[in-house]
Amino acid sequence: METKKLNLAFVYNVRHKKPSLTDEQAIAEAEFDEPSTINGIAHALRKLGHEIYRIEANEEAYAKLKSLKNKLDLVFNVAEGLRNQDREAQIPAMLENLDIPYVGSKPLAQALCLNKAYTKKVLSYHQIPTPRFQLFYEPNERLSRKMHFPLIVKPVSEGSSKGITNDCLVNNQMELYKKLAELIEKFKQPALVEEFLTGREFTVALIGNSPVEVLPPVEILFDHLPNNLAPMDSYEVKWILDNPESNLKTIACPAQLDYKKFLQIKKLCLKTKQALGILDWCRIDVRMDSDGRPHVLEINQIPGIMPDPKENSRFPLAARTAGYTYEEMMHKIIKAACERYGIPVSPVLEPAPEKATNWLIESFSGQKAFKLV
Ligand SMILES: Nc1ncnc2c1ncn2[C@@H]1O[C@H](COP(=O)(O)OP(=O)(O)O)[C@@H](O)[C@H]1O
Ligand SMILES: [Mg+2]
Questions:
Q1: Residue 212 and residue 179 share a domain
Q2: Has residue 40 been placed in a domain?
Q3: Residue 115 within a domain
């Protein structure tokens, strides 16, 4: 089969303001990427030899994509979508309309995963463990008797810890109803209340469709947090405490797990990907309950991929831990989409196949149950 470099549109949303807890535009753009991230991704795509067309996912995006339609082989989309609740489905829906192949999940899965309550309903149908929950449309609805404190309250359709500040962990009805009123008013959407799991937390990056490659799990560490911060990846922790200048060890990769636990988490993630119809790549947040049983918290169907290793971006960290360069990671994601569409890509860019298993051998080969499958 003849293979070639691709004509690739790179679609993204870029931040125009630095992260802040008070600036409205900064809060609205929290999910968007920094200009340095956008430049870094474009640079990596170019290094892979592809011809790149950069498109910001704003109101002009459809017209630009349409004008390029006949040139493009594929779209690499990391856009969170401009606004509103189904925003991550916007670019994929435009691309479906224009019949242009793209990397990542279809509009339905994009919209589904952006709504944490719908996601949890689908997970529950498939008997995939996820924390018990209740959705509040109004701040004065009655709390179900099945729900036990401590609880966490979060906006149902946000990401990047938007709205999930330290005080979202609530221990009594008074704190709960105060937070519900605040979040429903502020985010103009229902609030999701979940039982708070107190065990270890991981995030797991997946690449590919059949087979799916599970990258080394990243553990989110809470030991270093000052006493006034709850053990969770809150907005304060993710965007203010966890920066390249602070020398805090906030994550570890690969997570120290025994092999059986790793297999349990892997199975959970593969089942989740399948149940939600995720394509090509994603990162799944998993947390254990007090008995060490893993549950799915949520799915990042367009994970962050900051190229600078200093940023501790979790998907690239997992890939790096497996031994992939940033470009090799990008190639694998693109290749997953190309295989679905039957688009030939150059095998020259292919990373060594042992990289998929080397880290497994290094992490687990001393353990009795270990088997390379
Ligand atoms: N039910 C829960 N139990 C324990 N911790 C939780 C729960 N839900 C969320 N968290 C904490 O809050 C963080 C952010 O929540 P998450 O649902 O992943 O939102 P986001 O889309 O903003 O990443 C998680 O990484 C975890 O630390
Ligand atoms: Mg998360």
A1: no
A2: yes
A3: no
Q: How far is the CA of 196 from the centre of ligand 1 (A)?
A: 9
- Quote the ligand 2 centre to 221 CA distance (angstroms): 14
Instruction: Please tell me whether residues 297 and 335 are part of one structural domain.
Output: yes
- The ligand whose atoms approach the alpha carbon of 162 most closely is 1
In a domain, 31, yes or no: yes
Q: Is the pTM of this model over 0.90?
A: yes
Q: Tell me if 114 is assigned to some domain.
A: no
Return the HEC string of the chain: CCCECCEEEEEECECCCCCCCCCHHHHHCCCCECHHHHHHHHHHHHHCCCEEEEEECCCCHHHHHHHHCCCCCEEEECCCCCCCCCHHHHHHHHHHHHCCCECCCCHHHHHHHHCHHHHHHHHHHCCCCCCCEEEECCCCCCCCCCCCCCEEEEECCCCCCCCCCHHHEECCHHHHHHHHHHHHHHHCCCEEEEECCCCCEEEEEEECCCCCEECCCEEECCCCCCCCCCCCCCHHHHHHHCCCCCCCCCEECCCCCCHHHHHHHHHHHHHHHHHHCCCCEEEEEEEECCCCCEEEEEEECCCCCCCCHHHCCHHHHHHHHCCCCHHHHHHHHHHHHHHHHCCCECHHHCCCCCHHHHHHHHHHCCCCCCCCC
Q: Are 347 and 268 members of one domain?
A: yes
Domain count, the chain: 3
**Judgement on whether residues 146 and 257 belong to the same structural domain of the protein:** no
The response to whether residue 364 sits with its C-beta less than 6 Å from ligand 1 reads: no
Does the C-beta of 302 come closer than 6 Å to ligand 1?
no
Q: Whole domain around residue 76: which residue ranges? A: 7-103
> Using one digit for the tens of pLDDT, what is the confidence trace for 63-115?
999 999 999 999 999 999 988 889 999 999 999 999 999 999 999 999 999 99
Asked which of 199-208, 214-223, 232-241 is least confident by mean pLDDT, the reply is 232-241
Closest residue to atom 9 of ligand 1, CA basis: 297
CB of 297 closer than 6 angstroms to any ligand 1 atom: yes
Distance (angstroms) between ligand 2 centre and the Cα of 159 equals: 7
